[in-house]
Amino acid sequence: MVLDANLHIDGEAEGTITSSTLVSIGKSGKFKGEIKADKVMVSGLVNGKVNANTLEILSGGRVIGEVFVEHITIENMGIFNGICHQKEEELEEPKQIQLKE
């Protein structure tokens, strides 16, 4: 599923979600699979892979799996069980400098 809009899940879902904005998993939401989004907010359960600029695990939320993020916030009573990788911005190619004699 590829979206240009916010998505909120309060039921059970499985698969791959790609969004240029926000994906939120509500308290009764359960998602299994891969999420690629600008921001992911979790109050329920995510089991799989998350690739986002910002991940917020809210109180009562659980993320199990592997995450690639620039910023991560875990509130009190939020749970993360897995591997976290720092998402790096793409680096520019080195520029050649010519020196004058």
The pLDDT mean sits at: 90
pLDDT < 50 runs, ≥5 residues: none
What Rg do the Cα atoms give? 17 Å
Strand content: over 45%
- Distance, first to last CA: 58 Å
Percentage of residues in helical conformation: under 10%
Number of strands: 7
Q: What about the largest sheet? A: 7 strands, parallel
| Helix-strand category | mainly beta
Helix count, DSSP H or I runs of 4 or more residues: 0
How would you sum up the global shape?
A: globular
Order of helices and strands: EEEEEEE
Task: Give a summary of the structure in a few sentences.
This protein is an all-beta fold and 101 residues long. Helix content is 0%, strand content 65%.
Keywords:
mainly beta, globular, 101 residues, 65% strand, 0% helix
